[in-house]
Amino acid sequence: MFAPAYLDHNATTPVTPRVLEAMLPYFGQHYGNASSRHEYGRAARRAIDEARQRVAFAVGAHPTEVIFTSGGSEANNLFIKGVAANLPPGLAAISAIEHPCVREPAKSLRRQGWRVREMAVDAECRLASADFLATLVEQPAAGSMIVSVMLANNETGVVQDVARFAAMAQNSRAWFHSDAVQALGKIPLDFRALNAAGVHALTLSAHKLGGPKGAGALVVDKRVDLAPLIAGGGHERGLRSGTENVPAIVGFGVACEEAVARLSETAARLSGLRDDLERGLAALGAVIFAQNAERLPNTTYFSLPGLDGETLVAKLDRAGYAVASGAACSSANPEPSHVLLAMGIAPRTARGAVRVSLSHETTAAEIAGFLQALSGTVSHLLTLSAIAVTAH
Questions:
Q1: What is the per-residue pLDDT for 1?
Q2: 256 in active site
């Protein structure tokens, strides 16, 4: 029987059986509003409190530092816009490889008088220390500063040394944020250690690690003065009003617990699978982006010279392998990846980019099958190109 293989886990992940089992009662018998004072409401509130503890434990934070949101995009917007709303305009500095849900809210601050700067990365997708230091120098003497540097890139998988950069920014009194959506469940996270280094907030999302869509969190130092994006009933310490999505929050907590429990074993196994994959890609002549940088153990981003990434993704989909040509959130944009362009990759090469992202359930047989399907697809496309050239 034909069984398609899903190799796009950086876009989203399937809800695990234990997560689904934990969520189901909160769609039915435990349907209370967590703000209600009767037993139905108290049961919902207990479930949220337990989930908050699980999420906090997964990242080494205190439960009171976890603010639940609808996902990573809202959490990123809450920090950037929420901090800026309570500060005089100054400098907002983000890395050039940030996700659009960081780039766009940062750009929106210009309308409030903020100056926005994108900091350069090197050819391996690592934030350039020299440009980071130059950015700190640009801060006006009496001005405010917001910095956002993602912990792990969603396309290349490159891990940034966020603690080092945050420490460098401490003398600038910058409010420092890191989008950790892709990192959670793939590498260890310790908010207490990051906070000591100067990181004030982390963004998390449930659906990247076996949890449901529609749940995320901003883990934030309580000294940060945030203005809410959504005002109303005062939920989440007044920072995120709206009746809580109890089933999704419960699922988020269980997904964090599961991911942390399997982290060491999964990381080692995924690194081995990724190495097998990249050896096979190298044999096909692929360019593997950021291969020399520290990366998430599950992510490979590559290009095959002369072949279009979107075409490859479509052909591989028909062959039974779900992969991506870049970030899922920007798939409607035909332009080359802004991440690859920031790395200095030529637009022609960037248009050929394909991302493969694995999970704890990915098998060696799926990797071998993918490489075989890719080899056949490449041969077919190159034959068609040769025929087209000959015909002309």
A1: 41
A2: no
